Amino acid sequence: MEDDDRCSSNNPGGIEQEEEDEDGTVLRFLDSLDSYLTLLDALSSTLRQGWFELASARHSMGSSCISSVLLDQKVRSAATTFQVGKSIDGSPSESHPSFAISKWASSRDGKCSFGEMEVSHVQKTSKNSELRHRGSSNFYDTTEEHDLRINASSTIGDGDVQKERSKSLSVFGTLVSPKLRAAQVSFETALDAIVEIANIRSSMLCAFTQLQQEMKEKGLG
Amino acid sequence: MAGRGQIRTNNSALIAMIADEDTVTGFLMAGVGNVDLRRKTNYLIVDSKTTVKAIEDAFKEFTSREDIAVVLISQYIANMIRFLVDSYNKPVPAILEIPSKDHPYDPAHDSVLSRVRYLFSAESVASGRR
Fold first, then answer.
1. Which of A43, A54, A80 shows the shortest C-beta gap to B22?
2. Residues 14-33 of B with CB under 8 A from A
């Protein structure tokens, strides 16, 4: 015990640094947990909007015009894909996967897509220092913002992206309801949230693993 | 958990879905649908006739494919194969439980939150005090 006291008094800086690192891990974990729950709440809102718009489109176009029976089994590649990379928090041994989305990639060659712009918006919002209130879906839209997003999607996206979007809807007919297009935008927005959730999940699990190791070293786990 | 096992990087990975018709239809409109030469899809539409075995097989297939980055599964469907979902611990593909139209998201059933929940349990706090 006296030896420990001597050690701690000989190296107070090292112990303080260790405690700071632990606090940092705990904070990172708690931040990730909070972001995870907030983003899931936002995703729920976006999906609800998408389902509502899909139901409206079904009402105007007819149930038989929008059903899974029409989803043909023709060989095709996904136009929207994910990129999986490695992210390192702290030590190199604590790498975890990071995800990014590439929307309508078959029509692009390295251009910044509407989707990527959306991810940036989400990242900025998530770093906002204002208190987040779950249940109010601060990340995503009021009706006005959603309408702006629909209008933006038809103007910001270049011609090729619009072609890919139309091609994706063509399985439901040549002329589709505006509500179906709105539903498409909602589900694209949901994909942005999913990328963020995947990254936050990855970061949370990494911080959790570090905390578990620290607790084991201290004999608490 | 994160960090265990090799993380396979991939520039063009798919998102798989095990969900109800409306959810799958919506995401297919967003361009994530893929059908390969063997007519294998990256989604399973679950309805009242879908068996638990079919859901289990789809989950096992999607989680073992190297070209899939994320598996989206409606939480009420994940509850049908909870043991399988909770025992999955690879970093990629990431398993995300999402709400469905008739079943809102419940954090208490989320497999990721269940894993980390014990940090806040009375036992872990009590062991820290000893």
1. A54
2. 14-15, 21-33
For chain A, which ranges sit under pLDDT 50?
A: 1-8, 109-130, 136-142, 153-156, 221
CATH assignment of B12-127, among 6.10.140.1670, 3.40.50.2300, 1.10.3720.10, 3.40.50.10580: 3.40.50.10580
Tokens found for residue A212: 């578990």
- Residue with more model confidence, B33 or A124: B33
User: What pLDDT, on the 0 to 100 scale, is given for residue A68?
Assistant: 72
Residue A125: helix, strand or coil by DSSP?
A: helix
Token pair 């906002």 in the structure block, residue: A128
**What tokens were used for A55?**
């139901």
Of A68, A78, A221, the CB nearest to B32: A78
Listed by start position, the domains of chain B span 12-127
ipTM of the complex: 0.89
pLDDT value at position A92? Answer: 53
- Cα–chain-centroid distance for residue A3? 50
Closest Cα in chain A, distance from residue B27 (Å): 6
Nearest residue on chain A to B127, judged by CA atoms?
A: A220
